[in-house]
Amino acid sequence: xxxxxxxxxxxxxxxxxxxxxxxxxxxxxxxxxxxxxxxxxxxxxxxxxxxxxxxxxxxxxxxxxxxxxxxxxxxxxxxxxxxxxxxxxxxxxxxxxxxxxxxxxxxxxxxxxxxxxxxxxxxxxxxxxxxxxxxxxxxxxxxxxxxxxxxxxxxxxxxxxxxxxxxxxxxxxxxxxxxx
Length: 180
Description:
Layout: H1 2-20, H2 23-39, H3 48-75, H4 80-93, H5 96-101, H6 105-116, H7 121-127, H8 132-153, E1 154-158, E2 164-169
């Protein structure tokens, strides 16, 4: 049995590397799997390879759970930039309705339903008796037109991953609802 376990090391390491993508963590997790095997009381295993890979899958799952818990605990205290981003986003969101009203009817109705009323696109297609692909593409085009309207009226300053850090109303903008 020990010979079989040694033969499984490299294939198991490759299996873990494909799922973890960090060489050091993959090596550590593979060692954890073999440590669990050594500590186990199982004397009679029908399919050693299957059992080893089951332990590996569970070890990888635990690894990602621990990482997610670490991320969640950091999320309880948001950095100041995120707080500012949320405030600026909310402030800018008050302008959305005014901009949507400027869109052509074919885009306006779809954006109101999808963006303001949060109705899924498939439901919108059913309600309006339209093809889902058509609804999806019109919503995308409407979003692009809406973005252009925003950019013509406001200078939006974005941070990492497109987050809104600040915005300034351009002098050419005549929107009353969008004072900054």
